[in-house]
Amino acid sequence: MKTINLDYSAASPLDKAVLEKMAPFFTEHYGNPSSGHSLGEIPRKAIVEAREQIGLLIGAEARDIILTASASESNNLAIKGLLAGGKKKGNHIISSAIEHFSILNQLKTLQKQGFKVTLLPVDSYGLVDPEDLRKAINEETSIISIQAANPEIGTVQPLEELAAVARESEVIFHTDATAAAGWLPLDVNKTGVDMLTLAGDQFFGPKGSASLFVRRGIRLAPQVEGGIQERGLRAGTENVPAIVGLGEAARLARETLAERSAKIAIVRDELKEKLLSEVPHLHLNGHPEKRLPRNLNISVEFVEGEALLMRLNMAGIMVSSGSSCTSQALKSSHVLAAIGLTPELAQGSLLFTLSSENNVDDIPYITEKLGSVAALLRNMSPLYHQFLKEAQINA
Amino acid sequence: MPDYSEKVMDHFTNPRNIGEIGEADGTGEVGNPVCGDMMKFTIKVKDNRIEDVKYLTFGCGAAIAVSSMVSEMAKGKTLEEALQITNKQVAEELGGLPGNKMHCSNLGADALHKAIEDYMEKHGTKSASVS
Ligand code: FES
Known about the structure:
- The structure holds two protein chains of two kinds.
- Chain A is α/β, with parallel strands linked by helices.
- Chain A is built from 13 helices and twelve strands.
- In chain A, the strands form three sheets. A seven-stranded mixed beta sheet of chain A has the order 2-8-7-6-5-3-4, sandwiched between helices. Chain A has a three-stranded antiparallel beta sheet with strand order 9-10-12.
- The two termini of chain A are 43 Å apart.
- Chain B is of the alpha+beta class.
- Chain B has a single domain, classed as Sufe protein. Chain: A.
- In chain B, a hairpin with a 6-residue loop joins strand 1 and strand 2.
- Chains A and B meet through helix 9, helix 11 and helix 13 of A and strand 2, strand 3 and helix 2 of B.
- The site of FE2/S2 (inorganic) cluster has 9 residues of chain B, from helix 2.
């Protein structure tokens, strides 16, 4: 059976060029960059080069890039690292209601330690209002962390405006750009962000490769203590192949970003149009325009996401869902709740994230399958039967 | 996707007895407090036996399989027998459920029992042992 992966943000295959670039560092150039002898030389240089490429992707200088092993780690280093790093204004942190758990969960911990946290609300599209941010800032605010784009509903934040508000009040602004990096043009100087998280696995680099941009002058406390790797901010022998892979993925992303994003957006738009026009009772989540080029999030009314996902999987189509039943914690998506979706609609949410592998030829099949799966599950849904009864009464 | 047993996948893929009995003798509806899902059972009773049983389910793969299994287990049983069906039995019949899906098995038997109680109340046969 043909398989159509529409869940590329969960995992993507490595770009072949990335793999080729990484390969020699597993065997031939296995040296430790910290070594004084010649085995360390090539790995050391390779890291310098990778750091440069990562910097170029976001308009930053190589020396302001801290290499980490995941976006979660970068996010923890940014916030916990800053608050433990000495110079801070006070005990107040601002973030948004739709951040990733690597932000929200550390904020919960910090709250227990006595920090005050303000989570800004979002509108029904998932946008943070810069005015809300302005009002939330006080004398005590030490850091603001707002994502560049949401990985689930795809909504892209007005980053420049938000960063400008932070700057006016001289508060450090961090952005989790994990979902945006490699897909949207990002420039740390143009947008005026002070720290930025990105991860290679989101743009065809290896898993376990990520970075944090830290503007010069900002002092962080290491979250992994030990050796002096990464200027002492992150101890541990460098994972050279992963770093090389991230560098190469960043280079490819920068060179092909506009074209790659535009191409995928065309397929995504066509998929959206087809689904919304041919399958009844669908509901688009997130912003209609201000969204990540490869992201589509749709709620299928009257049915639950895990059942949808399983049925689609049986037809060779892979997607994910924000339904509580698909989450280990049995909680439905906090993002969908924050944009005001009813619990029923959140249960039926489907997340599609595309890649260059997807093309318009598959859209009729996907549409047909989603249509038949939705019909089949609605046929056994008490909510749908209820809806039909009410429609009859009204008619 | 959780690791479901073959039995669960079978009932999920080919759910038996879907639907709603038009003039049901008893109706039982329950919501899952854990995840927000719901199930509705309708039964037809003849000579104290469950002659027909149908259900509607808004829920995960396990919930759908559970409702299908419960309907099979209940069909033909006396009301007293059907009231003895436990969530644990349903899960066992399905070849087990993943740990964090056990709560879905609660829906099935609960909704069935409610439908039976509803019937008993309407017919004044609600026994003291049934709460
Ligand atoms: S019914 Fe929601 S997790 Fe099973």
